Amino acid sequence: MTARNLLLLPGDGIGPEAMAEVRKIIAYMNAELGAGFTTDEGLVGGSAYDAHGAAISEGDMEKALAADAVLFGAVGGPKWDDVPYEVRPEAGLLRLRKDLQLFANLRPAICYPALANASSLKPELVEGLDILIVRELTGGVYFGEPKEIIDLGNGQKRGIDTQVYDTYEIERIAGVAFELARTRNNRVCSMEKRNVMKSGVLWNQVVTETHKRAYSDVKLEHMLADAGGMQLVRAPKQFDVIVTDNLFGDMLSDVAAMLTGSLGMLPSASLGAPDIKGRRKALYEPVHGSAPDIAGKGIANPIAMIASFAMCLRYSFNMIAEADNLEKAIAEVLDSGVRTGDIMAEGCRQVGTVEMGDAILAAFKKLSA
Ligand code: NAD
Ligand code: IPM
Ligand code: MN
């Protein structure tokens, strides 16, 4: 069997706490399921800055480029609020996305049945919710040039970020959204702001043309992104796949996360284009950040990180049964009333990060036997 090479980048804050729970699952899969994972570790974010003065070292970038998949925890925190912008913790994540060309960010928002009450919306609005946000991840205002603060010389400064999209960037992310829709409920909603942005006009045109050319069997709808945000909290179940740009996707996926009960629940996969052998670079990370307010307390919810590893099993290694079992294990543990603080409800048993990880591993072992 070929080795499956993983690079683990736990990062800062609750990142290492959540990653520790995934490490236990990997160890079990190697020992009992013959999964053959090899793991290497690296530093990213504030922890890399403290060690190397950079948000990720060149050595760890090389490891990331060579790995079959990268598992990423979270970066950032108040300790690094004053470090120079170029080496702030978040720069490590942005460099990984850009240099690995991970243009497609898949952010599923699934409301586990047991958590319908934990949502900020009425249970009937989110019960059975299963939407997929496909966020463009290597373009737009995150990376467009110029990006700077200039001194206007009259006591005023000007902050500039530039939103740029080329046809090929929109075409390839639209293609990913349409392909994925075909494996789901066959519907795509594209969101932009063509009423105020030229890039929005182009986005709308290119998505429409891509649809007409190759995916006319999929139902396509367009929505202005602000209205899309409103619809996400009004009637989220109307959506199947949402495709949108880097910044709108960032915001809309945090909104979608809360529909499912907690930011601590949402996984994500960031994928590159397949090479001629069909292999694609990939990084898997929770949607949440380093949660400085709860870091070090052992109370973080590890589910987003564990579910990100399930996505890794599915998308990088085609281990579909294992991915299904791991997701099922999460659902079973939630059904049994075990909860971390962020999703706690009356009548449930509150546990910490390690206990939640142990409970999921135990359920996974039973399902894998
Ligand atoms: P955050 O996601 O870290 O936290 C927002 C809120 O959600 C906090 O109250 C936190 O306690 C809670 N939360 C998040 N994850 C949780 C979990 N697993 N279990 C329980 N509660 C959880 O967002 P923030 O506070 O805006 O940002 C903190 C830092 O994280 C910033 O430096 C930011 O740049 C960074 N950040 C990093 C990533 C990433 O690494 N991918 C993503 C978002 C934010
Ligand atoms: C996310 C985060 C990142 C983003 C930050 C930490 C760079 O918010 O992954 O959602 O803005 O993309
Ligand atoms: Mn975000």
Automatic annotation (TrEMBL):
Domain Isopropylmalate dehydrogenase-like, residue spans: 5-360
Residues binding Mg(2+), per UniProt: D226, D250, D254
Keyword flag Cell membrane: no
Subcellular location: Cytoplasm
Membrane spanning residue stretches: none
A GO cellular component annotation in the UniProt record: cytosol
Binding site for NAD(+): 77-90, 289-301
Note describing how the cofactor binds: Binds 1 Mg(2+) or Mn(2+) ion per subunit.
Ligand binding (substrate): R97, R107, R135, D226
The keyword Metal-binding belongs to this UniProt entry's keyword annotation: yes
Pfam families attached to this UniProt entry: Iso_dh
UniProt xrefs under SUPFAM superfamilies: Isocitrate/Isopropylmalate dehydrogenase-like
InterPro entries in alphabetical order: IsoCit/isopropylmalate_DH_CS, IsoPropMal-DH-like_dom, Isopropylmalate_DH
Site (Important for catalysis): Y142, K193
EC number from the UniProt entry: 1.1.1.85
Matching HAMAP family: LeuB_type1
Entry similarity comment: Belongs to the isocitrate and isopropylmalate dehydrogenases family. LeuB type 1 subfamily.
Physiological role: Catalyzes the oxidation of 3-carboxy-2-hydroxy-4-methylpentanoate (3-isopropylmalate) to 3-carboxy-4-methyl-2-oxopentanoate. The product decarboxylates to 4-methyl-2 oxopentanoate.
Annotated protein name in UniProt: 3-isopropylmalate dehydrogenase
Species name: Shinella sumterensis
